[in-house]
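User: I'm preparing a small set of examples for a lab meeting where we compare how different chains pack in three dimensions. I only have the primary sequence for this one, and I'd like the structure in token form so I can line it up with the others. Please keep the answer compact; I'll paste it straight into my notes.
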Amino acid sequence: MTTSNPSSPVSAPVALPPKPALLSRSGWAAFGAALLVLCVLAPVLNLAVPEGSVFHLSDYGVALVGKIMCFAICALAMDLIWGYTGILSLGHGLFFALGGYVMGMYLMRQIGTDGNYKSELPDFMVFLDWKELPWHWALSDSFVATLFLIVLVPGLVAFVFGYFAFRSRIKGVYFSIITQAMTFAAMLLFFRNETGFGGNNGFTDFKRILGTPIATQNMRMTLFVLTSATLLGCFLFGRWLIASKFGRVLQAIRDAETRVMFSGYNPLPYKLTIWVISAVMCGIAGALYVPQVGIINPGEMSAANSIEIAIWAAVGGRATLVGPIVGAFLVNGAKSWLTVTAPEFWLYFLGALFIAVTLYLPNGVVGLVKKLRGDRAWRLT
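Assistant: Understood. Below is the structure token output for the 381-residue chain.
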């Protein structure tokens, strides 16, 4: 840093610290490897390698990994608000389901007259003796409008809820409780047949996207690659956001919100912005999830699903971005295995895992790895 004569009326400029890199060299190498494996190697192993080969990636494996990647996007969204902003939401399952329902409405319209009742209306509407589509289905036949609504609907709901909650300075356990109450109320609403969302059965029996059958191997792999690219893109976006001035203010709010206010910053727009961004990410994850799984119903809004999102972030390691992704794969991989080999013990395992992480791994799996490597920068302050 240069100095100047105190009597000089103009002070020399002060050298600012360099802006942190988005990723380190090893980080870019790992990112490139993940991109190569998910977007190039996986399609080759599924489409080009014969089924009898030991290197063949089965359709079941593609569907499972694709589903877990959608969950990983939700865990990443949770890390942005919980790990970096200190806001624990127990209602992010709502935003995930809203994105899923928007995509589900489009997929139901794509069925056309191929349904059981050979009607332009979805089968459940014909069964309930509906004569026309309700008003909120007006844009459901447009793929472009669906893409906008996948972002707009979760974002708008999050904005309205977050504005009143944050303006009222609701925080801590009280905020977590009202987010769960909001999700439960929405679940009860979507269970009602008269709302036009399929009641407790929801939407299923999807046929095609943009005129292309969903059940084909090529379409399933296309959805897989699209989900992979979205997950990696969300990760890079999160890294950029946290490294910016906006991200540093978020971490300051997490550590000492009162000091942030005394420093001249209003926490409301910062908290509201990251809350909406996190909700939109979950909505996008839900929209990618539905065509790969083939169903969406109000059960996706259950309290257990929202709590699981927080568990993925906690198991992997909060305030790391990569940790929640690792946690989503670990927990859901174990769930897929245990629900087949010992389904009666799955919930006990999940509860024991959360207790063990809380007591012995407060910084998650990634935090433990960094600690063993001697890296002290992982600690949450």
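A couple of notes for your slides: Residues 56-301 form one domain. The two ends are 29 Å apart (CA to CA).

User: Perfect, thanks.
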